[in-house]
Amino acid sequence: MSDPVPDPAQARLDEQRRRAIAYLRDTFPTPPTCPMGHEEAAWDVTEPVQLSPMAGSLLASRGYPVFQVVCTRCGYTMFFNAVIAGIVDPLG
User: Fold this and answer.
1) How far is residue 23 CA from its own chain's centroid?
2) What is the tens place of the pLDDT at every residue in 50-88?
3) Structure pTM?
4) Of 14, 32, 83, 90, which has the fewest beta carbons less than 10 angstroms from its beta carbon?
């Protein structure tokens, strides 16, 4: 039986998530506590996603690439700009 063929899209997402975690560790050496009171919070980091402005906004045709840091106890979510973090190329 042969090894499964790696999915290039999944490999790219995994690499972006790894870079997001590295950015957080370099930028914030002390892990944050959850502002909802979970001092022993565990955090999950997502791959980048695109947030879009509301319809009718002056920027409606543009989106914002972000990655999320989510408290695994309550779901509190922080958003970080993926371009500033160096994870996503601003030109696509």
Assistant:
1) 10
2) 887 766 666 555 678 999 999 998 999 999 999 999 998
3) 0.77
4) 90
| 59, two tokens | 């920027």
Q: Are 70 and 43 in contact (CB under 8 A)?
A: yes
pLDDT tens, position by position, 14-46: 899 999 999 999 998 887 888 888 777 788 998
Cβ(36)–Cβ(76) below 8 Å: yes
The neighbour count for residue 64, using CB atoms within 10 Å, is 15
Q: Sketch the domain layout of the chain as residue ranges.
A: 8-81
Per-residue CA distances from 4 to 1, 13, 30 (Å) = 9, 18, 38
SS3 80: strand
Return the DSSP state at 67.
E
Q: Is 83 exposed, middle or buried (0-12, 13-18, 19+ CB in 10 A)?
A: middle
Alpha-carbon gap, residue 42 to 73, rounded angstroms:
7
